[in-house]
């Protein structure tokens, strides 16, 4: 790839994650659909927060988690997202900066509070997320730093952020700037319910602006409204340069032109918490790509990063991913 100051700039929701253990009965009693993300208002967020026992609170958001994992791998990352000028916003900014990630987005002083995501992890390690977007919804085209986009190998768009209207304009602006500068654009579909809300928009985005697509099995089948993974795989071929389709314990399938790679999941003794698995996978894939690795090796690095994250509670790596990748790939 041509020289750039940054490997990846992520654009997404700037959220403080609140993780807690929960039983299936708790999800049922609150009408929550396991394994999905739902948007809630501030009142619902406050009520739910009162009923859980937080185990971990840290800066998060899907794209931000990916950029954090990229930094742990040794990559150069930047992030664009909207926080409020409040306590949670300060926590988010401090956490991001501590990893060496560039985060220059101007905080909002007159909006709703900084976003938070209540992540309920059931005994089967599945995570169900209730998200109050707060200040995130204010991100718009004016927040896109064109110089930052042009000086990054890859601009990574978080599908979750497609809900706020102004964010759509911001995404398209960033994609156009990146393409004009000869850079790559990546998109994560984020969640099957998110795909269902914005299917036509996402298809248009993939067809006209995206080079690298990340999706799990539920998301890609939802995007193309087909009943099985194989049909979805055939649908996505030719619509973007690279499609990285993850299948949890079944591993992943990578498609790039005539190349098709089927990879097993990285061996792991026990899955503790699937929060951040896809985020870490994307980070590993990006790290391999900007360092000239083959598509197959990019997938391997992504799988190694994802396995580390799901082996403990929380979405951020707890060990040096760079050393772990070096050890496993030789």
Strand order in space, largest sheet: 5-1-8-9-10-11-12-13
Amino-to-carboxy terminus distance: 23 Å
Q: Round the mean pLDDT to the nearest integer and report it.
A: 91
Label the structural class: alpha/beta
Query: CATH-wise, what's the superfamily?
Result: Ribokinase
**What overall form do the CA principal axes indicate?**
globular
Give the CATH topology: UDP-N-acetylmuramoyl-L-alanine:D-glutamate ligase
Residue windows where pLDDT falls under 50 for at least 5 positions: none
The number of distinct β-strands equals: 13
Helix content: 40-55%
What is the beta-strand fraction?
A: 15-25%
Number of domains: 1
Q: Which value, in Å, is the CA radius of gyration?
A: 18 Å
Count of individual helical segments? 13
Name given to the CATH architecture:
3-Layer(aba) Sandwich
Please write the string of helix (H) and strand (E) elements: EEHEHEHEHEEHEHEHHEHHEEEHHH
């Amino acid at each position: 790839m041509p020289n750039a100051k940054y490997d990846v700039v992520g654009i997404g929701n700037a959220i403080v994650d609140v993780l807690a253990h929960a039983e299936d009965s708790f999800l049922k009693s609150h009408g929550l659909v396991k394994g999905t993300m739902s948007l809630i208002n501030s009142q619902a967020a406050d009520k739910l927060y009162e009923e859980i026992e937080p185990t971990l609170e840290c800066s998060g958001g899907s794209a931000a988690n990916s950029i954090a994992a990229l930094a742990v791998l040794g990559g150069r990352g930047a992030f664009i997202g909207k926080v409020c000028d409040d306590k949670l916003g300060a926590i988010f900014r401090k956490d991001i900066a501590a990893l060496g990630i560039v985060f220059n987005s101007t905080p909002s002083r007159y909006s709703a509070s900084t976003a938070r995501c209540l992540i309920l992890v059931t005994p089967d390690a599945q995570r169900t997320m209730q998200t109050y977007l707060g200040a995130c919804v204010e991100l718009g085209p004016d927040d896109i730093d064109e110089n930052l986009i042009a000086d990054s190998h890859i601009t990574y768009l978080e599908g979750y952020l497609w809900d706020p209207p102004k964010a759509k304009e911001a995404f398209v602006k960033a994609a156009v700037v990146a393409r004009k500068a000869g850079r790559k654009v990546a998109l994560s579909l984020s969640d099957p319910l998110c795909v269902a809300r914005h299917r036509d928009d996402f298809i248009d985005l993939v067809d006209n602006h995206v080079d690298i697509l990340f999706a799990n099995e539920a998301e890609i089948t939802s995007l193309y409204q087909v009943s099985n993974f194989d049909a979805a795989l055939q649908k996505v071929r030719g619509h973007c340069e690279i499609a990285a389709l993850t299948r949890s314990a079944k591993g992943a399938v990578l498609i790039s032109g005539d190349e098709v790679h089927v990879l097993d999941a990285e061996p792991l003794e026990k899955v503790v918490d699937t929060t951040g698995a896809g985020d870490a996978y994307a980070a590993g894939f990006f790290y391999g790509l900007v360092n000239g690795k083959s598509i197959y090796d990019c997938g391997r690095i992504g799988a190694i990063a994802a396995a580390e994250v799901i082996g403990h509670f929380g979405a951020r790596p707890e060990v040096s991913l760079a050393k772990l990748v070096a050890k496993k790939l030789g």
